[in-house]
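[User]
Um, tokens okay?
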Amino acid sequence: MKTLAFVTGLGLIAVAMPASASTVIDGSCASVTSAAGCLFEGNINSNANGQANSYLSAQTAYNLYNDTHPSANPDISLSLLGSTDDANFASFGSFTGAGTSSGTWTLKGYVADFVAVKAGNYFTLYQLAIPASSGSWDTFDIPYNNNPRDLSHLMFFGQTSSSAVPEPASWAMFIGGFGLIGGAMRRRQRTTVSFA
């Protein structure tokens, strides 16, 4: 009977204990806008509950860090697009380098303005200088015995591409198309009508 009570007691303790939230590593975070991003200890996942490992916990941790570290300005707001460990990620995007320390990523119909790279007990959050639908990633900003650690997963935050600024290749196609239309209109012969 005591064993049952002990097991029940442990179960209650485990339920009552909060999971550890992600925290900013002081000294390894000037700003998410810097090339090295901002290093966090903990996990980051797609849960929107704001608790423990939720991406909203990382957002809150960074904004609190910003309160005492002016270089971290401004506060951030993360709008979840998806994660490479989501079951439906193949319909959302693709990435290379699974199980390694670097690779590329591409999103279908979305533009990311923040990317989180998770490896081991850490993740680095980067704000992209120019929102993009593709890019590269690596784990070099995550500490691990002087060697890069293998990727756990990537997370993307941003917007659908319909509300985004077109990429340079799209602008080139627009300009080329307008040039063709203008050339065709100029070559068209004009018919003049005169009244007697």
Q: What stands out?
A: Strands lie at 23-29, 38-41, 80-83, 93-95, 102-107, 110-119, 122-132, 134-138, 153-160. The longest strand covers residues 122-132.
